[in-house]
Amino acid sequence: MLRHLVNGAVGGALATAAMSTVMVAGQRAGLMRDQPPKRIVRAILPGHPRKPKPGEGVLGTAAHFAFGIGSGALFGVLTRGRGRVPLGVLYGLAIWYGSYAGWVPKLTTMPPAHRDRPGRQAVMAAGHVVYGLALANALTRLGRRAAEAA
């Protein structure tokens, strides 16, 4: 179980990096103004939830990776380290939906997905698909390495 947890956490870190690439590309393409993790941190930090705060970019990135690593660790344990691509994609989309139709709007930093700017939610949904794909592939590769080492 510990191996699945650790492999999932490593996979979650790699998957978050892949997802972040999609998010940065979406921002550069003009589909979203700034990164949602940064906006979420802005809402959580003391002060006005919509006014920029010092360090929010770094804290947003750290929080995003922490969430991605934790989610990857959970996936690794739940799937017993079996990185099945369809399950990874569904997992990524479930995280997107649960976040952007659930707890993120409650912070009042962003509207629910169905009322948000279509470009941002398209980027975020695509990013979460990439997260799920990368997570499943990482778990598959890490599982193969463990089996070869045994």
Automatic annotation (TrEMBL):
InterPro entries linked to this entry: DUF6789
Keywords annotated in UniProt: Membrane, Transmembrane, Transmembrane helix
UniProt xrefs under Pfam families: DUF6789
Bilayer-spanning residue ranges: 58-78, 85-103, 123-140
Protein name: DUF1440 domain-containing protein
